[in-house]
Amino acid sequence: MQPHQLNPLIEPQFDAVNDYIINHLGSNVPLVEKIGHYIVEGGGKRLRPLLVLLAANACGYKGEQHISLAAVIEFIHTATLLHDDVVDNSDMRRGKDTANAKWGNAPSVLVGDFLYSRSFQVMVDIGDMAIMQVISNATNVIAEGEVLQLLNCKNPDTTEEAYMQVIIGKTAMLFEAATEVGAILAGATPEQRTALQLYGRHLGIAFQLIDDVMDYLSSAEEMGKNVGDDLAEGKPTLPLIQAMKQADDEGRQLIRQAIRKGGLEDLDPIMQIVTDTGAIEYTQNAAQAQADQAIAALSALPDSSFKATLEQLAHIAVKRSA
């Protein structure tokens, strides 16, 4: 079951977001439109725009602007994917060729820029300065998170704190923005707005932690990307950081060397070390703790089917295998 199918009341709104996205990818430059459609229609659960809808509804919103606001969040997310795949030299995303693998790096970066600018055009139409402030700040923090990740790449001395700083910026920030702007649009109380902001942040951290676990557990078919991509790129994610803490000297040196040089020559023995040291369980437990905090934050909201769905999403985030 897809996340949007958890709540029948949200499905028509979710379909309206998809229609809005497709209808606002128009461009006078055919390649822009072609790549935009390819990446936006390329699968994905649309979790971030769904969060906008659920947050707004959970705060009693009755208008229509949450549809376009959800599309804004998806445009920004898609732009970051286009840029990430270029930075990471990725060739698979959601089980398909990446845009940069099909059309090259330059068009991918520029279409990412187009999607960023289109999102701000839509925000101007919405016309809420508080929403613009949250989203403009989020895009800035996301960019900083990506640069920080780049600096940590191939650095085996990256700490757990430095890693968390990266995922809060590059992943959790957009989750947080999605739920917060939904609350703002609905005219939520300051307490409800803060609650949804915290919910989004903790959910986003949990989501990324499980993503990092799956890099060592899932098949390429389940992941929609190549297994071991993080290791191949020399990314010191939490499973590797924890494995280095717990491994013997030989195992620690093997992981350090693999992070420094990147590549997958030692993938099998490293996956074994990650498993044997309990690093998978450690990361899963950290994700569960974040999901628990996300659910706890929702106590400030009135009971509704939308609040219940937000709670379900937090459970699903840590139980998923793909």
Q: What this model shows, in words?
A:
By secondary structure, the protein is mainly alpha-helical. The protein has a single domain, classed as Farnesyl Diphosphate Synthase, CATH 1.10.600.10. Helix content is 73%, strand content 1%. It has helices at 11-23, 30-40, 47-58, 65-87, 99-103, 105-126, 129-152, 160-185, 190-214, 220-223, 229-232, 238-246, 249-261, 267-276, 279-297, 305-319; strands at residues 92-93, 96-97. It has a two-stranded antiparallel sheet with strand order 1-2.
CATH fold-level label: Farnesyl Diphosphate Synthase
Strand content: under 5%
* Secondary-structure arrangement, i.e. CATH architecture: Orthogonal Bundle
Mean pLDDT: 91
Largest sheet: 2 strands, antiparallel
Spatial strand order of the main sheet: 1-2
Shape: globular
Put simply, the count of helices is 16
Fold topology:
Layout: H1 11-23, H2 30-40, H3 47-58, H4 65-87, E1 92-93, E2 96-97, H5 99-103, H6 105-126, H7 129-152, H8 160-185, H9 190-214, H10 220-223, H11 229-232, H12 238-246, H13 249-261, H14 267-276, H15 279-297, H16 305-319
Antiparallel strand pairs: 1-2
Helix pairs in contact: 1-4, 2-6, 3-4, 3-8, 3-16, 4-6, 4-7, 4-8, 7-8, 8-9, 9-15, 9-16, 12-13, 12-15, 15-16
Note the main attributes of this structure:
322 residues, mainly alpha, Farnesyl Diphosphate Synthase, two-stranded antiparallel sheet, 16 helices
In short:
One of its GO terms (biological process) is isoprenoid biosynthetic process. It is built from 16 helices and 2 strands.
